[in-house]
Every structure is written in C-alpha cells, then in structure tokens.
C-alpha cells in the first residue's frame, strides 16, 4: 500500500536563547523521513518563530510508514560554525494509518480520487536529551494511503493497538482470536565502536531513534499475525525493552487479538454527558462480545500435559472440576478445548464480564535462568524465541494440570544483571464460559449497585463515584 506523507511547519514558541549577545535564536527546522530530508527557511532573532513553510512531501510504502518515525529537528543557525541543536520531535505515523471510522479528535479525514488522507495537527513539545523540553513547535502532518491489493503485503495498516486491560469505551468485540507475541533483536548503539568518538547527544539520539524504529517493527509484525488470525485490534498490548548490554537490545510485545468495531451510537457528546444518569443507563452497559469458532493450532499434548488432574488431588475437587467441564463441554465457543488446546491459551486482559469466569484454578508461574554469553548468534531472535516458548509451554502445562482451559492476565518479565538473565511468566489459570459473551442487553449496575466487568476505566470511575 504505497502512501504519501506531507508535512507543514507552522511556528515555534518559547524556544531557548541560543545567541547570548542578543538573547535571541536564529531557528530553522529539518524534516526527515527515511533517507529524505527537507529544511525550512531561517527565522532570525526570535524565540517565537513563524515559518509557515510549504508542504514537504515524502513517498513511502506502508511498511516504511509503520516502522519509520517522522523526525523533526529544530536547529539554531550559525554562519561560521556548526549549527546548534535545540531539540527534536518524533511523530509516530501509525495512528494516521487506521480506518477513518475509528479516528476522531484532532485528526481529520478527507477523501480524494486516489485514496484517503488523514491529517494530524497541533503543538508538540521540543525535547533535547541533554536539557529536556525546550519549547514547542506547531506542525501539520497529512498521510494519504492508496488501496492495497497485494497478497504478499508486509504491513498491518488499520490494526489498532490498545494498552488497556479491558475493552476500550465505545467499542464492541465480535470475536476473540487469541494470544499473539513477537520479538526483534538489534545491536545497542551505546555498545558500538563509534560511540567512543561521537558526542553524548548523538549517542542518546541514536539510541532513542533505534528504540522507536524497533517499537514500530514489533507492532507491525504483531499486526500481521493479528490479520492472519482474523482480527483487527490487539487489546492488552504490552511492549518491553530488554537491554542485554553487548548482546544487544530485545524488544518484545504480547497481546490479545480481537475483532473490534466502534459502536454506532458512541459519539463525542457521550463524553460530555457521561455523568448524567440517563447517559449511563443508555451507553454504560458492558461491552457486548461474541466469540466464533476459529481454526486453532493442533498440538499434541506432552507427557506433562496428559494428566488434567494431579494424582494426589482430592476426589471432591476432581468431581467439582469434572462438573464444570461438563457444563461447558457442549459450547461451540470453546475452541474445542476439551480435546485440543490452542498453542498458547492466554488472555492478557484483566477485566472480564460477569459470569465469564466459571472457575479459578490458581496462579500459575514459570521462571528460567539463562546466560547471555552462551547465545550462539546474538543477532538472531531464534534463541530468545526458544527461551520464551519453554516458559509458555510450562505455563500451559500448569493450567491443564489444574483442570483449567485458559490463563487470564498473562504477563512476561525479565531481569538482567551482567550476563545473567531471569525470565518469568505468570497468570491466573481459570475455566471460562464464552457463552456469557453472547450479545445481550445488560445494565451497567445490578440491583445492589455493583459494577460489571468489561467496562472502560471511565465508566468504572463513574460507577465508584456514584456509589
């Protein structure tokens, strides 16, 4: 999906004094995307410059639009010496790549004969790695995408990412597709030989730029997996940076893939009237969900997975688990988990609808200690993938031993000291009933005034305030 990026530099304000003799600044702006750079005119002797430049145009494919950030550098012009850096702004273009129906607020949409254009405008803080925030800059960024008909595309434009541990307000879920993960590895700029001869600011900016690019690459790859599973959003998304020293930087991401759409009746006016009882009754119901049966990875159980119940467990508990399993065995919404389980039956969300959790087995966790200097090829992700696969399979085995089908609130952490790396994963093993997620009209509160799950943080705060 090729696209065009257009950038317009409007003005700056509250810039720092760079010319001590006149307490002014001769500021200009460099706009960079990929390997292409444009410059504005120099606005002399002002701390509040007004450039109002022409539109700078970049052409790129959608893969580059997702991975590369738009870099805006504010400089102080010097005639007889090198230009001094004032600060920098990184603009992530991913929010401009989602469908028009899910964009609101400061982003505007327009259509033309060639594709859809989305524009972002506003004041952005100018940040310097040595001095912090140094003023603000007003910019306009417009992205035009063209229709993609390639079956071999490497982008995931349109997939939304939410860090929220519950369904975002104003959205409803049609399908839950499953767990998704990805990691990438790269060299750490602070451990490269060139770091010994470049300035501290250059070293900081090199690392900052690399982190942003790796973050975009991980999201793009996870988005591709989400599309393969039939979803269009990743909920409960968590991204982690593992700084392994000379071994490099590892960026990991996990989340729950869902098919998410906006509610037709959800508008911005809801936010202004949300504190009224009428709006809470009309719009505050828990998010309606529906799970459809999707193809799953067929995986044979290992020897540690064959026994669903420990040998030493009491007969009453075994009968209780069997009763729960019989209750939900006839449901078509269970991925066929009574006979075959997805490779990783994990959900990263923490808030669920009422009656969704039938039975809680307990906390399941796994840890592993690894030596970074034992990695054969530090530049390849295969070794780290194998490490995490071991932990996930162990978590899966623990859940099945407790007679549970899913792990809720799944998380992964690392702790690194010198060459020792400790990997840990944890979650809550539970039996869930997806029939409780079928669309139905339910009020936000029951007769006692308590809140149901799967509501936004805004709705929860309101409910507690009303109580």
TrEMBL record:
SMART domains: C2. One of its GO terms (cellular component) is plasma membrane. GO terms for molecular function: calcium ion binding; calcium-dependent phospholipid binding. Pfam families: C2, YbjQ_2. Residues 1-107 form the C2 domain. One of its GO terms (biological process) is intracellular protein transmembrane transport. It comes from the Eukaryota. This is C2 domain-containing protein. It comes from Artemia franciscana (Brine shrimp).
């Amino acid at each position: 999906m090729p696209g065009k990026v257009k950038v317009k530099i409007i003005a700056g304000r509250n810039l720092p004094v760079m010319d001590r003799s006149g307490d002014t600044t001769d500021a200009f702006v460099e706009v960079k995307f990929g390997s292409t750079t444009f410059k504005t005119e120099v606005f002399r002797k002002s701390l509040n410059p007004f450039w109002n430049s022409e539109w700078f145009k970049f052409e790129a494919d959608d893969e580059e639009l997702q991975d590369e950030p738009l870099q805006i550098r504010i400089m102080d012009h010097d005639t007889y010496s090198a230009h001094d850096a004032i600060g920098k702004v990184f603009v992530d273009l991913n929010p401009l790549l989602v469908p028009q129906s899910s964009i609101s607020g400061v982003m505007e949409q327009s259509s033309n004969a060639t594709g859809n254009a989305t524009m972002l405008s506003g004041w952005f803080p100018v940040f310097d790695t040595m001095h912090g925030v140094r003023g603000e800059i007003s910019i306009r960024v417009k992205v035009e995408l063209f229709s993609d008909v390639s079956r071999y595309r490497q982008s995931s434009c349109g997939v939304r990412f939410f860090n929220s541990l519950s369904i975002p307000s104003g959205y409803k879920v049609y399908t839950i597709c499953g767990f998704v993960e990805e990691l990438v590895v790269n060299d750490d700029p602070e451990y490269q030989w060139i770091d010994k001869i470049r300035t501290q600011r250059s070293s900081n900016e090199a690392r900052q730029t690399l982190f942003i690019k790796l973050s975009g690459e991980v999201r793009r790859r996870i988005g591709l997996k989400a599309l393969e599973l039939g979803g269009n959003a990743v909920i409960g998304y968590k991204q982690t940076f593992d700084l392994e020293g000379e071994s490099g930087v590892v960026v990991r991401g996990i989340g729950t893939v869902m098919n998410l759409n906006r509610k037709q009746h959800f508008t911005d006016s809801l936010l202004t009237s949300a504190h009224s009882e009428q709006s809470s009754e009309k719009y505050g119901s828990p998010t309606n969900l529906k799970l459809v049966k999707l193809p799953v990875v067929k995986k044979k159980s290992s020897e540690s997975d064959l026994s669903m119940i420990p040998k030493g467990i009491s007969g009453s508990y075994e009968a209780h688990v069997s009763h729960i399993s019989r209750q939900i065995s006839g449901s078509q919404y269970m991925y066929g988990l009574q006979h075959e389980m997805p490779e990783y039956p994990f959900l990263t969300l923490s808030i669920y609808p009422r009656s969704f959790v039938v039975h809680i087995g307990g906390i399941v966790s796994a840890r592993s200690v690894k030596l970074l200097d034992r990695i054969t090829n530090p530049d390849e992700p295969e070794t780290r993938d194998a490490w995490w696969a071991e932990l996930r399979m162990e978590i899966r085995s623990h859940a099945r031993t407790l007679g549970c089908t899913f792990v809720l609130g799944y998380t992964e952490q690392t702790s690194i000291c010198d060459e020792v790396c400790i990997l840990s994963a944890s979650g809550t093993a539970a039996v869930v009933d997806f029939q409780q997620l079928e669309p139905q009209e339910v009020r936000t509160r029951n007769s006692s005034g308590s809140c149901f799950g799967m509501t936004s943080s805004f709705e929860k705060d309101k409910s507690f305030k009303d109580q």
